[in-house]
Amino acid sequence: MGGTLIEPYPSVGEVYTRVARRFGIEANPREVSANFSRAWKTKVAFNHSRAAWSELVRASFQNLGEISTECFDAIYNEFAQPSAWRIYPDVVPILESLSSAKKRLGIISNWDERLRPLLNALKLSDYFESIIISQEVGYPKPRIEIFHAAAEAFRIPASNILHIGDGRKEDYEGARAAGFKAIHLDRSKNAATGSIRSLADLPQIIE
Q1: Alpha-carbon distance 85 to 8, whole Å?
Q2: Residue 207 clears pLDDT 70, i.e. is over it
């Protein structure tokens, strides 16, 4: 989901600081985003639980303000709202195209209980036959178990499934280790060789 279909809007730091301001915390969104990015890249055994998110949010405000339980709850709930997210411009057109071509679509996401309501609110749910969420199955990507859960949901061999995601380790390497075909989506300006920069590139690849 995140980084592939949707992204925080206008940014993690903007959303965090907007909510924190209601609790008397004034912080620079860029500093909060930078702190979040460092904490996200160095996270260990992150299980997408509420407690894990609480630690990450507090790390995002390191030296910028003390996050109370009430403030964290408000930030957590804010990211369940569609207003905190933006659907990438290439997403709906490719979902429409693939659906029209009778391709079976699914989601495998490292997420929590907020994902299904969020998908409904963003009007994306109906495109997907299967939605596999790490917190529900008990394994995050890149563990092969979460990919196998998707194959079981589709009732087809893993080798018949193509997985597309923005995480090199979690998505591309994890999917290949589970026996899936895989494509790495790199939306950056300096996309790695062998990666695609947009979901609009998919039709030429999967014809």
Answers
A1: 4
A2: no
**Topology at the third CATH level for domain 88-206:** Rossmann fold (3.40.50)
Question: pLDDT tens across 110-123, in order?
Answer: 999 999 999 999 99
Q: Which of 108, 81, 118 is nearest to 178 (CA)?
A: 108
> CA nearest 178: which of 196, 199, 157, 195?
157
Domain 7-84 top-level CATH class: mainly alpha
Quick check: 193 pLDDT over 80?
no
4 against 188, higher pLDDT: 4
Q: Give the contacts of 141 (CB within 8 A, at least 6 positions apart).
A: 108, 110, 134, 147, 165, 167, 170, 171, 174
Q: Tell me what pLDDT residue 51 has.
A: 96
In angstroms, the CA 10 to CA 123 distance is: 19
With a CB cutoff of 8 Å and minimum separation 6, the contacts of 193 are none
pLDDT over 90 (residue 56): yes
The C-alpha atoms of residue 38 and residue 189 are separated, in whole angstroms, by 21
Residue spans of the domains in the chain: they are: 7-84, 88-206
Amino acid identity of 75?
I
Mean pLDDT of the chain: 96
Q: How far apart are the first and last CA of the chain?
A: 23
Token duo for residue 185: 């989506």
